[in-house]
C-alpha cells in the first residue's frame, strides 16, 4: 500500500515537471522581450533623438507604431540661388493630395523575407513599379536631355522608334516633346540670368517668363544649347498629341552618334536665324509671341498663371530685393524637381521633472497636485529615400485642453447659502 502511494506521488511530480517544461518552452518561443522596429524606423528614431538633443536618461521615447503610419506622395523642389556671391538654398514641398495607410516594403522586418521567397521578390518588384513619378510635362528646344536610365528610354513620334540605348537626346529649336514616367528632373550646369528682374509691358507675362525668354533667345544664338537637364526614371518621349493633324507637331529623328539622337520639328515655314549680336535683354519683350505670355520655356506645359510659379516669383523677388531692379545678374546653381514618398509618424516624449522646471507649473492652482513627469506629443514628416527614411520636419502636436471642474463651495470660499446675500431681480411686467 505504501509502495503504491509512493509510486503515485512520483508520477504526479513527473507530470508536473513535464507541464512546467512545456510551459517554459512555450513562453520562450512566443513572448517577445519588447517592441521591435524595422531598421528604417529604428534609424529614423535614432536620428530624431539625436537631432532633438535627447541625450539624458530622463527622457523616454514611445510611439512609432507602424499601424498609424500615413503615406503620401508629393513633389519636392530644391534650388540653389547665388546672389552677390552668396548661395541661398531653397526647398519647397507641395502638399500631398491624399494620405493613406499603406504597408510599404521597408516597414517589414528583415527576418520576414527569407531567401528564395518568390512572393517577397514579386512584391518588391511591384513596389518598385509603384514608385511615385512626376506628372507628364512638355519640354521645348533648344536644349539637351541626359537620360540616366538609358535602357528604359522609349521614343514615340507618335509611333515607337527603335533608337537603341539612348543616353542623350538633343531637342532642336521648335521641337516639343511630352515626358512621361520621369522620377526627377535636375539641372546639369549652372545658368546665369541677367537683371533687372521686372515684368513686361503685357499684363500676362511675369518676371520669370521674361527671364525664360531671355534664356531661350540666348540658347538660339549659341552653337550648342545652354540648357542641359538630367532625367531619372524609365521615361518616354512622345510628340504632343493635338486634335488637328498639324505638321508643326511632327518630329524628325536624326542619329548623331551611338546613344545620341536629335529631335527636330518639321515646320512649314523655314525659321529665321537670330543674329547673336541682338541685344537679348532689350529685344526679349519685342520677340515674345502670344503663346509665350502664358507658358514658361522650356516647360511649355506650365501656365504663367500657375500658383506655384507666382509664389516662386514672389519669393525670388524678395530675395533679390533692390538688386532686382538694377543691372547685373544672378546664378541658378541647382534646380531639382522630384516625386517623393513621404510618411507621417506620431511619437511621444516623457520627461521627468526636476528642480528648475517651475515654469511648467505656471497657471496651475495651488490645490492641484504637481505632476512628476510631463508628456509631449510630436509628429514627424519624413521622406522615403530608397531603403532609408529621412526626417524632414518635426512638429509638436498640442494635446486636447482639459477643463478643470470644482464644486461651487470652492469658489465661494466654503460659505453657506444662509450667509449669501438675497438679491431681488427687477420685476418683469409680462410675467404672470
List the helices and strands and how they pair.
Elements lengths: L1 H29 L8 H13 L7 E5 L6 E14 L2 E8 L5 E2 L17 H12 L7 E4 L2 E5 L6 E3 L3 E2 L6 E4 L4 E5 L3 E4 L3 E5 L11 H15 L6 E5 L3 E3 L12 E7 L2 E6 L14 H4 L23 H14 L7 E25 L20 E13 L2 E10 L10 H4 L21
Parallel strand pairs: 6-13, 7-14, 9-16
Antiparallel strand pairs: 1-17, 2-3, 2-4, 2-17, 5-10, 6-9, 7-8, 10-14, 11-13, 11-17, 12-17, 15-16, 17-18, 18-19
Q: What does this entry show, briefly?
A:
This protein is 21% helix and 30% strand. The chain has 432 residues and is of the alpha+beta class. The strands form two sheets. Strands 1, 2, 3, 4, 6, 9, 11, 12, 13, 15, 16, 17, 18 and 19 form a 14-stranded mixed β-sheet that branches.
Summed over residues and divided by their number, the pLDDT gives a mean of 75
Radius of gyration: 34 Å
Give the overall shape: elongated
Amino-to-carboxy terminus distance: 100 Å
Amino acid at each position: 500500500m505504501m509502495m503504491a502511494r509512493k509510486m503515485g506521488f512520483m508520477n504526479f511530480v513527473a507530470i508536473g515537471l513535464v507541464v512546467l517544461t512545456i510551459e517554459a518552452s512555450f513562453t520562450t518561443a512566443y513572448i517577445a522581450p519588447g517592441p521591435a522596429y524595422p531598421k528604417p524606423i529604428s534609424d529614423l528614431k535614432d536620428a530624431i533623438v539625436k537631432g532633438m538633443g535627447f541625450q539624458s536618461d530622463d527622457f523616454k521615447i514611445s510611439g512609432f507604431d507602424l499601424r498609424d503610419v500615413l503615406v503620401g506622395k508629393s513633389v519636392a523642389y530644391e534650388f540653389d540661388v547665388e546672389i552677390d556671391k552668396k548661395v541661398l538654398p531653397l526647398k519647397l514641398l507641395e502638399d500631398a493630395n491624399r494620405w493613406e495607410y499603406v504597408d510599404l516594403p521597408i516597414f517589414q522586418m528583415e527576418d520576414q523575407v527569407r531567401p528564395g521567397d518568390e512572393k517577397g521578390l514579386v512584391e518588391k518588384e511591384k513596389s518598385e513599379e509603384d514608385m511615385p513619378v512626376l506628372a507628364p510635362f512638355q519640354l521645348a528646344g533648344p536644349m539637351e536631355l541626359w537620360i540616366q536610365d538609358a535602357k528604359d528610354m522609349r521614343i514615340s513620334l507618335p509611333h515607337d522608334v527603335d533608337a537603341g540605348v539612348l543616353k542623350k537626346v538633343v531637342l532642336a529649336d521648335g521641337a516639343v516633346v511630352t515626358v512621361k514616367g520621369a522620377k526627377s528632373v535636375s539641372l546639369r550646369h549652372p545658368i546665369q540670368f541677367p537683371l533687372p528682374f521686372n515684368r513686361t509691358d503685357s499684363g500676362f507675362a511675369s518676371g520669370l517668363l521674361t527671364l525664360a525668354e531671355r534664356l531661350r533667345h540666348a540658347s538660339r544664338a549659341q552653337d550648342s544649347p545652354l540648357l542641359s537637364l538630367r532625367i531619372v526614371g524609365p521615361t518616354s518621349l512622345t510628340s504632343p498629341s493635338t486634335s488637328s493633324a498639324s505638321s508643326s507637331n511632327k518630329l524628325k529623328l536624326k542619329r548623331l552618334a551611338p546613344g545620341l539622337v536629335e529631335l527636330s520639328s518639321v515646320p512649314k515655314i523655314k525659321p529665321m536665324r537670330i543674329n547673336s549680336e541682338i541685344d537679348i535683354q532689350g529685344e526679349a519683350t519685342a520677340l515674345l509671341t502670344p503663346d509665350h505670355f502664358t507658358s514658361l520655356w522650356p516647360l511649355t506645359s506650365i501656365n504663367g498663371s500657375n500658383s506655384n510659379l507666382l509664389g516662386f516669383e514672389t519669393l525670388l523677388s524678395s530675395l533679390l530685393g533692390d538688386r532686382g531692379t538694377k543691372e547685373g545678374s544672378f546664378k541658378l546653381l541647382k534646380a531639382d524637381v522630384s516625386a517623393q514618398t513621404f510618411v507621417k509618424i506620431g511619437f511621444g516624449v516623457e520627461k521627468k521633472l526636476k528642480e528648475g522646471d517651475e515654469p511648467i507649473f505656471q497657471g496651475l492652482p495651488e490645490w492641484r497636485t504637481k505632476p512628476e513627469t510631463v508628456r509631449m506629443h510630436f509628429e514627424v514628416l519624413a521622406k522615403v529615400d530608397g531603403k532609408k527614411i529621412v526626417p524632414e520636419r518635426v512638429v509638436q502636436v498640442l494635446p486636447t485642453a482639459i477643463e478643470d471642474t470644482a464644486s461651487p463651495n470652492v469658489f465661494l470660499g466654503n460659505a453657506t447659502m444662509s450667509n449669501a446675500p438675497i438679491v431681488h431681480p427687477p420685476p418683469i411686467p409680462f410675467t404672470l
